[in-house]
Records
---
Amino acid sequence: MPPLQINEVAPRDGLQIEATFVPTAAKIRLIDALSATGLARIEASSFTSPKAIPHLRDAEAVVRGIRRRAGVGITVLVPNVKGAERALACGVDEINLVMSASDSHGLANLRMTPEQSLAQFAGILEVVASQPGGRGVFVNASLSTAFGCPFEGQVPEARVLELVERLLELGIDGVTLCDTTGMANPAQVAALCQAVLARFPEAPFTLHFHDTRGMGLANALAAWQAGITRFDASLGGLGGCPFAPGATGNVCTEDLVHMFEQMGVATGVDLDALLAVSATLPDLVGHATPGQVIKAGKADRRYPMPQRS
Amino acid sequence: MPPLQINEVAPRDGLQIEATFVPTAAKIRLIDALSATGLARIEASSFTSPKAIPHLRDAEAVVRGIRRRAGVGITVLVPNVKGAERALACGVDEINLVMSASDSHGLANLRMTPEQSLAQFAGILEVVASQPGGRGVFVNASLSTAFGCPFEGQVPEARVLELVERLLELGIDGVTLCDTTGMANPAQVAALCQAVLARFPEAPFTLHFHDTRGMGLANALAAWQAGITRFDASLGGLGGCPFAPGATGNVCTEDLVHMFEQMGVATGVDLDALLAVSATLPDLVGHATPGQVIKAGKADRRYPMPQRS
């Protein structure tokens, strides 16, 4: 079995929606600690306008401040050409572009239809190719609402396949299929993963799940069964679903790693080290995190026999 | 695909560990409401000594007070011959006996080794057969720690298969394989389910999962893929793991039903009705419940487009 590659998104996808700004030095400490656990990639920040996402206004300082480690790719979210230029100037390994598979989510979240996003991506790819060092940077595209849109409902599989094809034709290096609001179910995940892998066998696909309706790990299992080996996940399950107060957000990295390691599927991640980093999150964000293994311990945890009278 | 049969365990497995006693009339209202949702079975109470489980001291009144509905089996937990006699006197459809697959969990939880439990079950089966109406009662055995013991660790699959064989030889009608403390992983679940179904193709097996480490639904998916169609689940995810404070307990019924219905697997359950019952739980038990769908809504929930400036 090929080992999994986990892309840790908490520093970007998690911290951006927290109530409080996490200081730059604390972000750097978090990412440096994550880098040491064996994660394949870390989404370190977002090169968005500081007005749009004030909590990530320190993107440059974070990316320039972290210790780079061989084998750990540093990726950042990039919303436009300007963001791409800023990211490349910091020497990232990967940039991650975001578009929606559905018109209404694209308009609501990005003020762009999928067509407009594709046109914008073409411009970003030109800039990346023209920059010094740009050609060595992996350009990923995250396709939001690939498993359903909270405004429109189902997004036809044929539409997702068409958008993936157009992304790859543009020159995008890899595509992340995102279950943005936790609508996916394992049967749907199996079908879409089988379809993209059959049609684009050379492209690296990443799956991004939310646990909004409790199906995060079941969906990851279904994707892995279909042949997917790259997953986004968020330490402690940080991140959320703005439409579902109280529901958990991104699938929790340590719970995902724990499940696959228990199954005998290598993740390359030192789970104990990862749990130690996760244990620092409540102090950082000011609340408990929704992960389960951090509360229960790993499945191989042993307890003393209770003393009975 | 055959429809699933869901056995709702919240009235027994959930309420027994709550901090407060739920009044008998409220228990009856809960079970009557659950009966109307299309669940296949409901574990209504436990005929244990009132000293052992004070919260279920009203087992007779509950079972006698509920409205019986065609197609909804009423099952109760029975710890010994006396409990079996009490249960049969109330006219239950099924009794559920409990034993552990591991010596130390059996001694800690029941003060009995697996061998002692098997001997006791033989006595209970004799009593059931000798009672008026007893022959029509389904006798199920729940095998705790079938996927691992919190004191001993791994329980060999061969040992579980041996105990299942001996239960069926005794005359037990069905066996529930219980992941008592949430140690199971999907690969292990697939392997054990395939093994029991291959070796005992005629026996009705039920799977009982805990979400202690976030794998509850992933394990249910793996069991279903292996051919299992009967599941225990607990409304709202009530119930717990005494060893893991803060971790969720039993797999949540509405989340399980939601996942399978979304996959196109019939459960026979009216999910909207079930969610309405789940929404009454916080008042009943005095705290929020860990279910996800109750917070997020079903995957087909639609939201209005946000108004942007």
Note: The first strand of chain B starts at residue 5 and ends at 8.
---
Amino acid sequence: MRITPATELQTRFKNLQAEMQGAGLEAVLMLQNADLFYFTGSVQQGVLYVPAEGEPVYMVRKEFGRARMESGLKEIVPFKSPKDIAGILADFGHKLPKKAGMELDVVPVALFQRFSKVLDGAEIVDASPLIRTVRAVKSKYEIEIMKDAALMMDRTYQRAKEVIREGMSDLELAAELEFFARKLGHQGVTRMRGFNSELFYGHIFSGADAAAPAFVDAPLGGIGVNPSIGQGASYKTIKKGEPIVVDMIAAFDGYMVDQTRTLCIGGLPDQLKKAYDDMLKIELKLKEIARPGAKWGEIYDECYNLACELGYQDHFMGGKGAQVSFIGHGIGVEVDEFPFIARGFKDQELKEYMTFAFEPKAVYPGLGSVGVENTFWVAKDGLKHLTFSSEDLVVL
Amino acid sequence: MRITPATELQTRFKNLQAEMQGAGLEAVLMLQNADLFYFTGSVQQGVLYVPAEGEPVYMVRKEFGRARMESGLKEIVPFKSPKDIAGILADFGHKLPKKAGMELDVVPVALFQRFSKVLDGAEIVDASPLIRTVRAVKSKYEIEIMKDAALMMDRTYQRAKEVIREGMSDLELAAELEFFARKLGHQGVTRMRGFNSELFYGHIFSGADAAAPAFVDAPLGGIGVNPSIGQGASYKTIKKGEPIVVDMIAAFDGYMVDQTRTLCIGGLPDQLKKAYDDMLKIELKLKEIARPGAKWGEIYDECYNLACELGYQDHFMGGKGAQVSFIGHGIGVEVDEFPFIARGFKDQELKEYMTFAFEPKAVYPGLGSVGVENTFWVAKDGLKHLTFSSEDLVVL
């Protein structure tokens, strides 16, 4: 169990302050769990006030003692209600800001209205793009945690090879792997920023169920155990000759990695075997072109075009009519971080120490899906693997 | 796996329409997963438009085919963007409403702003109180699902007695019970409405760790596996003579029940044994007074006063300084539904077929916590148990 070092926190808020100055923000008021963990080291009911210059103030309603124990920030104060904010800020010599940022992509309207009263006429803009820009570039400390998560991922994946047997249900397989990961310290809660985005341990499914589209923004969806969940493993039993997709999130010490591997019992039809090999070719293409400075959208375009050249226009990243327009997504304390390796991101560039998952997948409705996914970090000379399990198509 | 019957959906939207007419709303636009599941039977990326009279229209971006398959609503249409809404409504003979409701307690500001443009000058008020009022009163169909969840809960609890052993960690125990429940069809995702509220399978912890306060709005918090999670099971090992709290959510076919039991190896100190018995007395008091028509706040007051009379002023529902001001919470498709058995709810009354969890707990910082929790439904003549495991303090 790691406590985020104070030096890490300092670098993080200074990076945010640099972004804030660029955007003309006098302050950011932060409320959301993932952001609070990143900037304070301690998830509490509270508000982190980051001024454009100087020390942030973490105002904590519950649990002040825990925040004191876990956070390396200098200024942590108890507070009861948003009404107290002006007074607390005055104690620290801060006036109420005229232009402030909040996380408008995640903060609900009703809560926002309370803060907007407190900020009394201030212009409030969305600070999330700044926050996400800072969070996208990891420190060496963060990369080390993600390596630990990748180790958990590999051990869990090895376990899959031991437990898969004909006739077991996708749900039983999921349960076995979730159990295994949990005993290794998987934190259970996995965070996604998007409204209504729900995530469990990931997607473990076989055959036609792995090709069923769902509400989630993902190439594969799955049937799930009921329509209230509508994604992931179902009660379907695993048969010989169909692809089994193990797409899991390992979450450790607050950080996640995402990995997909494809397995089967007794082999796959040639079409799917070829599709699996071709998805690996798309990953190879990524590794050729992804460098600091490369544009997110151009990486997407080149990989997408290769998929089309290889004949997957109607099968790539979803079945026909249910295809998503991304192949990769940033990952760290949330699963949907910057960068997006996605259509249309013409200007945004990869930077050294960004981390992202890349998941070329081919989908055949009624038959199944195959593909691979790894989490990488961007080094000066190209991508380095965080997840590292063998990418061979496993035939059990 | 249940598909919500069309007759259920019809009763539900008619109940909402009755509330809407009382509040002068011409329409409600619903976006959130739990509400969509309740009112459509199918969680998709979409908008449910409920007019004050007539059939609701479910506009679905992704995945239209799934919505068609799972939802018993008559009017389901594909759509791409909020901009399409006016046109779709016109097709159904609806004008854009002048006063509409949205779920302002959960919908993020940025998303709200997009809809507010589409609704072009309409007054938009919070529809969540109406939605939650409707959802609080369950149908017989819903009660049956919750009984299935309670069965899963009991079987999982029986499993706890088999696997607990001295020296295992809280995390190992949690992993064992989560695994067991998952194999029984636990849906994994558990839903909570409150912003930043995170929930996994529940809280399983022992000794002092079960008395550590956390950010969550709950009597017990726990240390968790890392500060990013900050609640629930940790790596602490289970010792003889300390209370082991098994507070779990069983989630099945979209519905949840909440149950807590206390166990120990080799007995508990007299103080904790007595506290456990006294928590049972508070549950008995609840059963004496909770009837249709009883006020939420009065039930709270009577039970709280009894806790104080019994000497738990500084230990009830949290350690001194970290006490929460509720003893019970509604439960169904979310864990924080109406009714709240909590301080200050002077006017709101229990109604027949409401369901709630009641969890009197005593907390001794540094020592541990004891308590009991059951999920009930309100019958004409009083409470009926949904969760039903034996309430004896278990000595292993």
Note: Chain B is about 35% helix and 20% strand.
---
Amino acid sequence: MQIKLVEVGLRDGLQNERIILGTEDKVRVAKGLLAAGVRHLEVTSFVSPRWIPQLADATQLAHQLPSLADVVYRALVPNRKGAERAAQTPIHEWAVFMSASETHNRKNINKSISDTYPVLREVMEMAKEQGIRVRGYVSTVFGCPYEGKVSTAQVLRVCEQLLQMGVYEISLGDTIGVATPKAVKSLLQECQQHIPLTQIAGHFHDTRGTGLTNAYTALEMGVRTLDTSLGGLGGCPYAPGASGNLATEDVLYLLQQEGIDTGIDLARVCETSEFVQTKCRRPLPSKVLQSHLAQKRQEKRGDES
Amino acid sequence: MQIKLVEVGLRDGLQNERIILGTEDKVRVAKGLLAAGVRHLEVTSFVSPRWIPQLADATQLAHQLPSLADVVYRALVPNRKGAERAAQTPIHEWAVFMSASETHNRKNINKSISDTYPVLREVMEMAKEQGIRVRGYVSTVFGCPYEGKVSTAQVLRVCEQLLQMGVYEISLGDTIGVATPKAVKSLLQECQQHIPLTQIAGHFHDTRGTGLTNAYTALEMGVRTLDTSLGGLGGCPYAPGASGNLATEDVLYLLQQEGIDTGIDLARVCETSEFVQTKCRRPLPSKVLQSHLAQKRQEKRGDES
């Protein structure tokens, strides 16, 4: 079984952290991840720097990333202005994003769902001109911080609009981490009536500890792409102090034990996460990372005694 | 589907925490759990107080717990001496314990596996005289901190010896939290050739973030009893700083969302865990607890502004 892990720590992780990592540090993180074998990295977002100061260095970062033949760098592109900026960089792939829930879409993008489509269509046209592939993100597919449960019909409507625009893949986001396997199975069962699951990515958050279980359920259903964040970097903007993105290390450990090779070296990812953790000045949420660091401390004590 | 949760925080949780909770505080925790609807509590261990000072107050605690008709209190009983102490208390159920791995058994009990059986048999006989049911714990069933992988044949040998002695249930412990679903399925498939899964409890640790996924896998296989610890209380003695027991809250949240009623009120468990967290002076590992506390802080800020 081939599983594609998309490392979103530098974008989705950092945009939800208090600290702002310098461009040099971000390049160091990217290089660490590349050395570990990561091949798909979402590195930044071309949104207004006023909105997300953590990612204000999008253009500089894009130019400083090492160029490797088999590596795909992706960035979020919210609108025409973002697309104009992104087009001036060597970023390989773009991603457009919106929510399945009307209220979350309005709060996040400042537009209704129906007013969002034309904006994204413009981005899609510019991407086509550039010969750039675009992924689509759909947020709040299992629940919305404002509306509660989101209907599968509404999720599918948004997915179909994005596919019609030409996105090659849709990442379904459990933005507030409310899903459990039952909901994952139910949505994916409905989904695959309309969209091949090879075009679906699972973007799970671990806010309530269910991220890994949901990811495993999605794999069992036939999903082959998962979004993860090194160390579990990035909190939950709707519950500061809670966990956010599913941790790369936790997924990697599980896949390894299940006999699924991703070509990614877990220990080397941990090394990079340890650097990020030092910068964030807080223990990152990944349990595999913490277990790895605890063992490292213990071995060090053993050597000293 | 009926799922039985056995709350092991006061025993397995506290014995791996640095702080020592006073008897009064332990009684407060037990009362909080009872008020939340918990009905099966493992509260202490009648091992030598020199070994586990955190549980040195076993006898006092046992006498101070509220007596309720439908509540089962259980304690670990390692040997004849422990059984003599336990027999003087109103504890309803005992548990004997050993490891599937020879080295872990020696390090933990100071005896070989074969020398452990007669000791436990003596406890079983005393329990029979008292009309007391006994559970059996088998540790390190998926891996040993000293030997690595443990063979299924070895796990089954130990289980069969315990069942022959008369334990009514066996709790299979992933003591160092190394299992993933493949290992859980494989062990349980082998297991159910010899032991009905209704006699098996899943005792998962979350050291590598796989606890909930493994518990869910065990439920899918037919296991109906899970051991959990409030807040995820209790670390990993083999990797200080890493997570230990699977958190009660995380399991409860998943079960609720799956439509499985346990009769336990999640918010009230969180209240009790918050008290324990204050005593431990560190954030407990349960993601549901931390998410709950984050929302509570946010609501409080909302009220104040």
Note: The mean pLDDT of chain B is 96.
---
Amino acid sequence: MKVYKYGGSSVSDIEKIQNISKHLKEVSKNEKIIVVVSAMGKTTNNLIEKANMITTNPNVRELDRLMSIGEIETISLLSIALNNIGVKAISLTADQISIKTTGEHTKSRIKSIDKNILEKFLEENDVLVVAGFQGINDKNEMTTLGRGGSDTTAVALASVFSVDCHIYTDVDGIYTIDPRVYENAKKIDVISYDEMMELAYLGAGVMEARAVELGYKYLVDIYVEKSLSDVKGTLITSKEKIMEEKEITGISINNNTLMVTIDNIATYAKNLEPIFSMASSLGISIDIISHNDVVSDNGSIAFIVPRTDLNLVNTLFSNLNLKNSNVILNEKISKVSLVGIGMVNRVGIMSKIFKILADNNLSFHQISSSELSISIVVEESNAKTLSKLLAKEFNL
Amino acid sequence: MKVYKYGGSSVSDIEKIQNISKHLKEVSKNEKIIVVVSAMGKTTNNLIEKANMITTNPNVRELDRLMSIGEIETISLLSIALNNIGVKAISLTADQISIKTTGEHTKSRIKSIDKNILEKFLEENDVLVVAGFQGINDKNEMTTLGRGGSDTTAVALASVFSVDCHIYTDVDGIYTIDPRVYENAKKIDVISYDEMMELAYLGAGVMEARAVELGYKYLVDIYVEKSLSDVKGTLITSKEKIMEEKEITGISINNNTLMVTIDNIATYAKNLEPIFSMASSLGISIDIISHNDVVSDNGSIAFIVPRTDLNLVNTLFSNLNLKNSNVILNEKISKVSLVGIGMVNRVGIMSKIFKILADNNLSFHQISSSELSISIVVEESNAKTLSKLLAKEFNL
């Protein structure tokens, strides 16, 4: 048995759905398949747009119910296509196979899936077509799983049966760096869960961090591959299975970055605490914080937030009313990150980065490092140049 | 408490949904409302079209799941609009309030609805927004209720609480005859269940016969009214409540009519039986059957079927292989029907009909009568003329 997942661009029209059904017919001759699908193309965005015509702040219970129908459309159509060519297939929504979630609307996590029900359906069918991105809470309400939710559904189903999970997408694997940025980018054959989570968290678009995290927890081998292609993709697995370790695994560029600088502010902890506690209560996720070394009455502090939180940041500062300080928002910022296991333990990487910055006259705003990554915050206009130079330097 | 139902044309865009939400806000100040909605505009047709791009004969379980999502879209959006203007409202799908059906796909009937669950939701909310047209079967699969299914959902909900049901549509009531055919058509203030069922069965488009039948069974007063209008509509109720009885209540024109004539056929019952039993097994619903009086080896027989069953009729005759007979299909046929309680008991109506046909040189193919109606099968080109003459004669 295997679990397959097809994303929105792989099922964006009826012809693509029919092509997938033919492929599934072939593979289902040898083994049972659970296939998870996303909504067709831009369907979910279109539904959200309708809600936003009413209000930009819709009731989240109802928004979840609305957003869930795109996947139901796809499972019905794919099941119609499969049955039409003689495959025993059945569509299943979250309530039908009891995909239970933690319950928060628009960002639930999967708590459990009923294996017995799935086994019963697998006895009677060759292909189960499951709606991704959705689950039900304890009140039997529809909840959605947030960005990349269908990947999470697929990995969760694979974990139930301890089988491999194949994520089919419109690219043929995970690359060391976005090939649109650096044409010599190399495809990664195998990558550890840790590195992939870090890459995903730092903005590499192909997989969402939560799905990888779930794979990590239940040790599900995740293959990222191109739909209907024989090209070998990328395997995400535990680091114990990876023989050869590379210094640097990949580079991500994250443009969803906004730099907030507050000048002329008292930088004692008690003065800064209200800013970050209010930001937290507004749901703003704060990344790298830096302030000049000397704590003083008129110091300066800077931090990074997602650019998509701009409205929340404006709310934050109108609530705080920092009368004597200057707040500067810089939206033309990018975060370039190098990811690799044990990178920080190897000498010379940071110095190589500084040499590249200096030799090419690239100024930076912030640099931070963690066990798995080094991130450099630069002007957005310099992000691609820097990424290419790093990719060349580290042979990615 | 009341039950409201808004049809597809009343919720065809976001603005209309918002207007309905404002109206519901006003009325929900005085009483609790259960509102049933259809899919937005042509949504269901568009979904069926997608399925038909795959096959004209889709798996009915999957087709039902597909067709059900239009209503889920509407309930979510209407609930978002209601909550946005401060109304305590909640969207509910068939599984959430246990609308159980008989189970056949695409044409289920409602078996039961869980009153306790509804009461619980009514305690916590002022408006319940229920998806029409859908129910779940014993296997927890989505099933749909066939044409006019949302009306049936509304009447069933009204019957659970023994309250009135208001069907809001784009016309302001039931007319004695389609106003597009006869501009002096009169609106009917009150009509009995029997007459309305007969009118609906004979093709008057506003209400489906099954919803009226359910109202009849549980004595639900059904008001057919125009959305967001103060104009008084039509009340459908039991005949005991109707004081003044009219000779003729209304006229319907049904163009979904195909006349099949078989010439040169043995018209003994044993020869005809295979035709009608095979038609029945193909699901062709046969209306008025007529044959010339003398049963003979080379007689002739004619009957009426829905024009939409043309493909099935062709299948019927290719299966039957009536080698010596001529089969003539006439698609340019209409059935004009007069409806009224106890009509057949009053003398003179049939003779008036014949006088009109004769005076105006209108030929007819068949005439049939039942307790509640007289139907005249004529050329489609004559249907409107005949209807107008009848409307004038019977002061409709």
Note: DSSP finds twelve helices and 20 strands in chain A.
